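job 3f2a | input accepted
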Amino acid sequence: MNSSMRIGVYGLGRFGSFWARELVKHGFTVVGYGRSAKQAPEGVVLGTEDEVLTCDVLFFCVSISAFAQVLQNTASRIGPSTLVMDTCSVKLYPAKKMRELLPSCVRTIATHPMFGPDSGKDGVAGLPMVLCPVNCPKKDFQFWVDEFKNWKLQVIEMTCDQHDREAAWSQGITHFIGRTLSELNLQDTKLATTGYRTLMSIVEQTCNDPLQLFYDLQRYNPYARQMRMGLKGSLDTVMQVLKEQEKIV
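job 3f2a | predicted structure (249 res):
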């Protein structure tokens, strides 16, 4: 029974609170900790930092840029039998930090739930969940693959490098375009086409996330710069084609 396994959620911000509630929905006993949290989400026990760090399984739900410092501050207090998972939107960086800062006896899995409070508000079934083994026996890794499949999630097993390569050109470019379009201060109009409304929804979706996430996606994914340069090159090509066309008129 899942209820016999105590799950710790470190970080009760917008995503951490959402993730803690999902774990409760699926039968786990969940203990949450947030530095400024006054109360836990419904069904979640508000615990101390040390209580969360010694749970059977520990999910870190903190920003990418804060992850290393949080890990450094807590590593010596994490239970030796605790399984640790991050939930960052990049994978090479947190995996590297878990290898560097945690004792070799601590089992680790890098995860990326590719959804959140907005996309998962009506349920998480069918949404993608990436799992990357870092320092974990196969049976423990398989337990969580099977568990998330039972949630009806679309479980994707891949390496951290493959994740970051693909995410730079999917999530990274989406957030980059969304934030760029937001600078134009686009407004609704009676002339809005389906395509325009799609663009507006991208702006809304990406800008509803913390601005720090946008910065972190661009800074900590080693393939993000290549994506941005490719996007800039494509824009320059289109602008040059239009410039040549203007000479014909």
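job 3f2a | Residues 67 and 86 are 9 Å apart (CA to CA).
job 3f2a | closed
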